[in-house]
Amino acid sequence: ERRDAYERIRHELTNAPVLIFPDFELQFKLYIDAAFSQGLGAALHQRQIVDGEPRERVICYISRQLEDSEAWYGATQTECLCLVWALEKLHYYLEGAVFEVYTDCTALKSLLNMKTTNRHMLRWQIAIQEYRGNMTIIYKEGKSHTNADGLSRWPLDNVKSNPAYDPEVAAKIPIHFMEIDRRRNFRFSEWAPGSGTLDSGNTDSEGTETPILGISSSELHNEFFSAVLKSYAKHKQCGILLQLLQQTYRSPELESQLEEPWLRAYKDKKFFLVDGLLYHREKHTSALTVVDRDHISLILQEFHDFPYMGHMSEYRTRERVASTAWWPKWEQELSEYINTCERCQKANRKHGKKYGLLQHIEEPKHPWETINMDWFKGLVPGGKENYNVCLIIADRFSKSMRCLPCHKENTTIDTALLFCNNIISTCGVLKIIISDRDPKFTSEFWTNLYDMLGTKLAFSTAYHPQTDGLAERMIQTMEDILRRFCAYGMEYKDHEGYTHDWVTLLPAVQLAYNT
């Protein structure tokens, strides 16, 4: 009977007319409350017109149990946590909206401007700054603050017998305890709220053992631990460490016999003993120390090559090995092992662009069959026409060159006419022209012109000037020669008193280079 009454009340509270859809044109009201060491509760309300009268109705309820770490918060901290949690859960209603927050904690009214050294409060202040200007916090006396107060009270354990059981929360953060029994088997025992005390039997819900990160199967066998223990006797550094850790006093003589990295790890107190086995501690994990090459090879194979390990990446494999085994320079050795894994090299997917075949430039058999051409830029205006660039054309067969002064402002048609009048008219129709990707060389007019002449245009690879290297090298040579004459001015006077600039010097320079 009481159960039926409870179910009926819950049904009425979570359905119309008590529950309504939100109207985003109206103001929201958020009621929050936190019960010390118990839970958090919040209800989002809105005043709407119902049956011709303005009435406050509920849009949604939210609540949750406090976690163990939160149960020790003070009253103000818990109320602040409740506000931040409610804003995060209901952000799709409240972001950009004007709303009021009702709480029975007066200190919360000054939260946005509160001066505190508490790291939790400071972090929460930053988290809710986006609501500044839209959110008004109002104090409401506790005895009249019943709607949210009921949501935060008497939380039940999140187990299946709870009507409000949430499987997502139950699976969110399982707590694992690792134990080492006398047989030196690593096992996980799992505990969740409401499951009672931790069982010392190292079994799961079905009564079967749950080993972690196994060797040869999914289990660290006794034989493996025994073999590791025997291998210590053959290893000098491990033998010294075992003596040092078993002694209750320091032994400088033994410490002086330790080598790196064993000595540094020992001084940092990273080694400890469990049942005679040597373990290495690194931050929050501890791993069994192995020194025998056969054991190391076995671990590398099992943690990378074994089907259950899936030939995973270096990062994934390193995480697995780090919590199980340690030996000097193990990360470097693991990286080398994975990078040289034959199956990985054959099966890994190539994510970059496919490599093209090497295209060799066909060497010409006659002069002026294949040429390279490029622009010599950065020149000062010279000559009667005030030329400011020079088109360098190099024959790949004879390595001779032609220099054609022109203007940087020349169009594609001007460049084509210059080329035809000075090169084609004297050297004939060319087979191949190699150039960079200058717009004047790649234009449709230039392409159509050489389609009619039967000449192939070969453009250099983007950002790879070596393709047009012959022209590039000739430009450097031209620059060096002209610098000797024109570096200190745009004009040069010869021994007879004649004045020259770089344009009038071009024929002489061209002759000097070609002969």
Main sheet summary: 5 strands, mixed
Provide the structure class: alpha/beta
> Low-confidence parts lasting 5 or more residues at pLDDT below 50?
172-219
Name given to the CATH architecture of the largest domain: 2-Layer Sandwich
Q: Classify the fold: give the CATH topology of the largest domain.
A: Nucleotidyltransferase, domain 5
Between the first and last Cα atoms, what is the distance in angstroms? 116 Å
What's the CATH H-level superfamily name of the largest domain? Ribonuclease H-like superfamily/Ribonuclease H
Give a count of the beta strands, DSSP E runs of length 2 or more: 18
In helices, the fraction of residues equals 25-40%
Shape: flat
- What's the alpha carbon Rg, rounded to whole Å? 41 Å
**How many helices?**
19
Which CATH class of the largest domain applies here? Alpha Beta
Count of discrete structural domains: 4
Which descriptors would you attach to this protein?
single chain, 4 domains, 5-stranded mixed beta sheet, alpha/beta, 515 residues, Endonuclease III, domain 1, Nucleotidyltransferase, domain 5
